[in-house]
Amino acid sequence: MFDNLLLGPGPDSLAGIFSTDAVKNNHSIAYMCHSTSLIDSTSYFELTEKHMSDANNYLLLANKSVHRAWPTDDVNSNKNILRDSYLVKWCDRVYVAGFFTSDASLLKIAGDVAWSCQIYVDRFLYNQEPMALCELYFFDIKSDSWFIWNKKWKKISKPPAPHGIYAVLGNGKLTRTAKKAIDDIWIN
After folding, report:
1. Closest of 87, 111, 117, 100 to residue 10, by C-alpha
2. In this model, does residue 36 exceed pLDDT 90?
3. What is the band of 38 on the pLDDT scale with cuts at 50, 70, 90?
4. Domain of 21?
5. Which segments of 25-123 are extended strands (E)?
6. Which residue has the higher pLDDT, 4 or 69?
7. pTM of structure
8. How many domains does the chain divide into?
């Protein structure tokens, strides 16, 4: 069992940015992907069709709050959404960087990452996990601010340093301020 484990979609994502600090802090790293046939690493976990099917069930529930078409018109986006949706079912906390939106969704998160965030929150809304354990941290790139979700978004100075089993998702193209905010969460 891992004391501290970063789960992410791969080193080219936001998880890759987090992984530098994770390694410095003796955290283990595991990346989930659709196929490991082209990857030469033991830190990858290949998701099977069964995993993707399970994730699809989570997405159907999340659609009640996300209010977007599922599946999307983009096959690659669908695979990434399925992967990320499966990933958040097994973590204690989720760190996300992205943008807020003003659409009709519950979480008001723009882009494909909204799906996995909603699936994480659904664990507490519908699966009877205690709401006090919900740790969804969101860095809004536009406002350069951290937020935590607990039935609504609340601005915070910064989230706690990553620990336990945590997922990292979102936009890998960060501003200088966003990169600094991510680095700063590792400082006590």
Report:
1. 87
2. no
3. very low
4. 4-184
5. 28-33, 44-46, 93-98
6. 4
7. 0.90
8. 1
119 has a pLDDT exceeding 80:
yes
Element holding 135 (H helix, E strand): none
| Dihedral, CA of residue 118, residue 121, residue 124 and residue 129, to nearest 10 | 110
For residue 111, which amino acid is it? G
User: Is the per-residue pLDDT at 94 higher than 90?
Assistant: yes
* Alpha-carbon dihedral angle through residues 171, 90, 105, 156, given to the nearest 10 degrees: -70
CA 146 to centroid of chain Cα atoms: 14
Query: Tokens 């204690």 — which residue?
Result: 92
CB-count exposure of residue 38 (10 Å: 0-12, 13-18, 19+): exposed
Query: Contact at 8 Å (CB) between 167 and 87?
Result: yes
* Cβ neighbours of residue 135 closer than 8 Å, sequence gap 6 or more: 92, 93, 94, 148, 159
Model confidence at 2: pLDDT above 80: no
Q: Both ends of the chain: CA-CA distance in Å?
A: 25
Tell me the CB-side half-sphere exposure of residue 8, using CA atoms within 13 A: 26
- Name the more confident of 79 and 165: 165
Mean pLDDT of 19-38: 79
125 alpha carbon, distance to own chain's centre: 17
Residue listed under structure tokens 């607990």? 150
Bridge partners of residue 140, in order along the sequence: 98, 145
